[in-house]
Amino acid sequence: MATREQPPQSPPPVQRLQVRYCKRGRARFTSHRDVARALERALRRADIPMAYSSGFNPHPRISYAGASATGAATEADYLELGLARSCDPGWVRDAMSAALPEGIDVLEVVERGIGEPSLTDRLEASTWQIAVAGPSHDVARRAVAAALAAASLPVERLTKNGVRQFDARPAVLALEAPEAGTILATLRQEVPLVRPDDVVQALGRVEPDFVLASAALYARLDQGLYRDGRIVSPFEKP
Amino acid sequence: MSERRDDPGSLYDRLEPLLMGVSKPIQYIGGEVNSIRKNWSDAEVRWVLMYPDAYAIGQPNQGLAILYEVLNERDWIMAERSYAVWPDLAALMREHGVGQFTLESHRPVRAFDILGVSLSTELGYTNLLAVLDLASIPRRSADRGPDDPLVIVGGHASFNPEPIADFVDAVVLGDGEEASLRVSAIVRGWKAAGCPDGRVGVLTMLADAGCYVPSFYDVAYAEDGRIASVRPNRPGVARIVEKNTLQHLDEWPYPKAPVVPIAETVHERYSVEIFRGCTRGCRFCQAGMVTRPVRERNVETIGCMVEAGLAATGLEEVGLLSLSSADHTEIGTIAKELGDRYEGTNVSLSLPSTRVDAFNISLADELSRNGRRSGLTFAPEGGSARLRRVINKGVDEDDLIVTVTAAFGRGWRHVKLYFMCGLPTETDDDVLGIADLAARVIEAGRQTSGQRDIRCTVSIGGFVPKSHTPFQWAGQADVETIDRRIQLLRQRVRDDKRYGRSITVRYHDGKPGQIEGLLSRGDRRVGRVVEEVYARGGTFDGWSEHFSYDRWTEAAASALAGTGVDLGWYTTRERTRDEVLPWDHLDVGLDRDWLWHEWQEALVEGGQDDCRWDGCYDCGVCTSLGSETQIGPTGKHLLPLTVVGS
């Protein structure tokens, strides 16, 4: 055998399942790669009949629709599984939740019908809860009001190519300070992607008294379609 | 360590805000699949198992994974894990007064009864001090009180624990499975009795049970700086401490369900030791000397462990571990039957540490049926036949070529070769021979495959003489010699127009090896150097971006001032037969006269066979320790798979 044969092509998935999962508590510190590895192992422990990609190094067919940053908790991250055999979505949800490490759980599993759009097209906006230690409720409310009144919210971010400046304002769909220590922000997901830490930076710029005593904590509460001023589950049929 | 300890509670709430600002916070979180959390009040003996390096390195450690399960299987023992904290978090923890914590419950390490430390490499010593410091445990055992845990070390580096003797309370030599349970039982009894005679009381009981308690021994030095004597300083303490040897590995099938990391680590595979010990007799190899005799696991146990381990972890890679895997008496059956079982699945099997032997190519072929085929690795260690006789690594150059030819014929395109530089009696020509060997490998590959895309990676590092080996008396090659020879080799490869571009030379410079040499053959005076390096900010010495040779040499000069000995005295100096070596009172079963004979044989290039096949040569292990070689063939096979329902 002088050259190695190419492995046979793997068959396409028989069933596509769309999954809403959360990262809670300590699991907020998992990176996207950590979640991906944990998930693949959980699928194997749970004996879920995954479809695999072709090639010498086949991988289970999982596609992620965005992912929360390391350090951010989430109640609404999404992915899609390609299965080799049809399974009951409820069974998959329970089996995965049982096999995943503490703090990472599967909340909902629905079947993606033929011709239905991918998840990525249906994740338009997210609502973030931001825990901010330091500023009083008054200061936070003033900062929120000033930010909403501003025509633009210039922020800076350090990237691999140096400091980049952009306007965070167009992405801000809703912003409030419901109680001391908490900011709620609904952000449209577009390019450039405005993240909740950009909002915190913007609040500090429009209100000099908005100074944090320690790093802010982020949690994505919801993510999906943005319809009539609210977020609608991406699983909702049109 | 006092009689009863209240639950100290979790540090997590104070730790969490600090984690937002550090790199890879997930490594400090715990909560992994298969981690075990127990009630504080249910346990009578509480261990922290600590590896003195980052989680990514320490988590996959096989020894600690075994002890974690062995200890936690007892309902009266709890064992949690802790690892070295990177400098970014360590600084924040100091600033905010958060102590070293465990991963399971984030309780402070200081609240536990025993801090068990696995020492795989000497370059972890500064991290040991850093962990003690962050845990608020006094660095020196002499300064510890009733509320401090017992600091007990084990692992290969602890076969010469003298450089850290002042920092540890006790040392367990050899296999830890039974020994850790023995230690637990002693601590349990001592606590239940109301901690009679305090720390000295429990240390005396541990010493009686075969642990090495450094503070029970005094070291005296002669005028010339050499050790004059090592003597027990209290009645009833053994003059010589023997290592622990576990027999019947089939009765100890651990780890069964190792912790599955969430953070990325260096080895993400389920590993099964297929045997422990090695009698090949390579003269440089401490592992092969201190783990004798050979004790095999049988095919049936290995098969059950692999099946259950994969199911419990969800891992896809299986490592069949040992010091020389192809030497298992039934390796053919193991490879064939596991290959059959997992063919067509995504499970990949790997067999590290194989000999240069064409038989190994068929083994590798069996194990890579699923298509994943990494490079093949062989370790001739020495560049010339002469040097390989010196180190007793019986690799014949023609055998190597036959072996790689077989590999290239079966589709492999890449061969990795491991070598050492600075071996006893080595000359420039011995090292330059590596280039010729690599060129022959490439030529064989081109001819066999008819293709040009054949690659050979040569990895070369400096040789460090270790305790309890025939080379324990050898002078270590100095940094300049090692660096110069490696440069000569690189130049020779670069100048080779025909083959040079197909050969990659990977190398480590000689400096970390020199420090490893200081620590691996050091005595108690070297402990001051470790302290001085730590005081000057040195930690994570196993990482090139943290290791500073200058810091070590300056610390050595200052800490050893006035002793009459220095870095070179510990490293490049050849020892004489009559010199008292710092570890002479620690017995791994090897007869000192046999070791000396092997050292002399090395100098005249004499060979030594393997006692498994060619008869006993009286190394001393079986006779002095009452242990025996346990090998097959057993004629066993894999048991049928259990049916998994879903």
TrEMBL record, chain A:
- Name the source's superkingdom: Bacteria
Ranges of residues in domain DUF2344: 16-188
**NCBIfam families per record:** sam_1_link_chp
Record protein name field: DUF2344 domain-containing protein
TrEMBL record, chain B:
Q: Which residues form the Radical SAM core domain?
A: 264-506
Classify the source by domain of life.
Answer: Bacteria
SMART domains assigned to the protein according to its UniProt record, in alphabetical order? Elp3
Provide the GO MF annotations for this entry. catalytic activity; iron-sulfur cluster binding
Family annotation (InterPro entries): CHP03960_rSAM, Elp3/MiaA/NifB-like_rSAM, Radical_SAM_N2, rSAM, rSAM_horseshoe, rSAM_sf
> What's this protein's name?
TIGR03960 family B12-binding radical SAM protein
